[in-house]
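F.,

This is the one I mentioned.
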């Protein structure tokens, strides 16, 4: 049902965030800085065919020696509460709401 669908979607989103974080680590090692999502994709550090999954969209903010990748759901799916997830240079995926 709905709970299983949500769990599957969240697993995919967490995998995507992990891939973004790994790409940031690679990009930083090669270039000495972190990158936006567009830069990660265009440089080849991140192989991501789409920038969204199951109502979630991804964004990356870069500031000095840090980055934050956020997965935010557009909402409106049958009253289900979809959490916002983030990952940063610590490589730890966290739920922020």
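My design for it:
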């Amino acid at each position: 049902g709905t709970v299983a669908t949500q769990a599957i979607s969240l697993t995919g989103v967490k995998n995507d965030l992990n891939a973004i974080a790994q790409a940031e680590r690679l990009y930083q090692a090669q270039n000495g800085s972190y990158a936006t999502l567009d830069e990660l994709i265009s440089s080849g550090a991140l192989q991501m065919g789409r920038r969204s999954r199951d109502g979630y969209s991804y964004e990356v903010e870069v500031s000095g020696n840090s980055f934050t990748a956020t997965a935010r759901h557009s909402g409106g799916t049958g009253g289900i509460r979809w959490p916002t997830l983030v990952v940063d240079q610590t490589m730890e995926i966290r739920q922020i709401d």
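The mean pLDDT is 90.

Talk soon.
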